[in-house]
Amino acid sequence: MIETQSLIWTDDYNTGILIIDSDHKSLISSFNRFVDQINRVDEMTSIRYGLDIIESYVSYHFRHEEGFMIRLGYPEREAHVFLHNAFIDELMAMKAALFKRTLSGPQFCDLFRNWLTRHIMAEDRKIAVFVRSRAAVGLAGSNAWARPGQGGIAEGGAPESGAASGADGGGPSVADLGGVFGL
Question: Per residue in 22-36, pLDDT tens?
């Protein structure tokens, strides 16, 4: 059996917006636990549980990110939300295909990994560019998306150094969700 590859967080995925980066790291962690389960066992009950965790975290993250875009007044929010909704539909179709066994676990993982990395690198980075442009003209105004002294976009929209990872306290972390597969 060919092993499915996990997704390793690199600085390439940083948007510089701490709450978004933290959500992405948690989502990648959930995905990697799912990949580990797919590589070890092809038991549908375990796969179903792992998919439920990924689906829950994707939904949480999209709501979180969409609320952030509203608070920012992000002008491309509707298009971004459209992409989120399209992915939720795609995720449901992939999940159904996985249960019908017309899509394998590794195929699901490849599709999910590819979508997530493309979305972060293209669409989510647009949000960061917008935040930075607002900061440049003094309009960022809120610390809703960063913790001072921990890097990323901070109060007033100014970048800080020394970004830290971890949950921002707003929503479920992998641990809050009971860990994936009880590992």
Answer: 888 988 888 888 888
